[in-house]
């Protein structure tokens, strides 16, 4: 789905006119119209405002061009509902909501995270705890948070 379709869906789902959406974003109605027609797209600063105002990630606004992966635990983040948020309420697309909460990381060390993951993942995927431990011990240190 393209930005213009996503923006239109956001506006319609909230029962807003182009004028009302423009007022919330502090822009002109004509800008909203041009975006919905696909003539232009907003700059990154405006995308951030749209994201925060309508509680939708920039990745989603851009049509989910990439699969987001938590840079702490490695979990794929396919929906905005699992993406963490910073203290100001903006999305932090680097981390899931279970690893990063209100500006703080949940796990103090890589070992704490691995110790949490091993029992649940071994039973969920029918793997031995040793296999899961080895898998995460090799994979997780490659992620941004643990480098």
Automatic annotation (TrEMBL):
<keyword id="KW-0238">DNA-binding</keyword>
<dbReference type="InterPro" id="IPR025868">
    <property type="entry name" value="Zn_ribbon_dom_put"/>
</dbReference>
<feature type="domain" description="HTH cro/C1-type">
    <location>
        <begin position="7"/>
        <end position="61"/>
    </location>
</feature>
<dbReference type="InterPro" id="IPR010982">
    <property type="entry name" value="Lambda_DNA-bd_dom_sf"/>
</dbReference>
<protein>
    <submittedName>
        <fullName>Xre family DNA-binding protein</fullName>
    </submittedName>
</protein>
<dbReference type="Pfam" id="PF12674">
    <property type="entry name" value="Zn_ribbon_2"/>
</dbReference>
<dbReference type="Pfam" id="PF01381">
    <property type="entry name" value="HTH_3"/>
</dbReference>
<dbReference type="GO" id="GO:0003677">
    <property type="term" value="F:DNA binding"/>
</dbReference>
<dbReference type="InterPro" id="IPR001387">
    <property type="entry name" value="Cro/C1-type_HTH"/>
</dbReference>
């Amino acid at each position: 789905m393209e930005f213009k379709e996503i923006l239109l869906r956001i506006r319609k789902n909230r029962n807003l006119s182009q004028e009302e959406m423009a007022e919330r974003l502090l822009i002109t109605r004509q800008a909203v119209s041009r975006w919905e027609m696909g003539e232009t797209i907003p700059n990154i600063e405006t995308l951030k405002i749209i994201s925060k105002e309508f509680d939708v990630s920039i990745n989603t606004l851009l049509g989910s061009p990439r699969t987001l992966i938590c840079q702490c635990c490695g979990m794929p983040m396919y929906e905005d509902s699992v993406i963490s948020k910073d203290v100001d309420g903006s999305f932090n697309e680097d981390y899931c909501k279970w690893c990063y909460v209100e500006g703080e990381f949940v796990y103090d060390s890589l070992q704490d995270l691995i110790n949490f993951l091993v029992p649940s993942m071994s039973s969920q995927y029918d793997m031995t705890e040793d296999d899961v431990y080895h898998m995460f011990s090799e994979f997780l240190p490659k992620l941004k948070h643990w480098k």
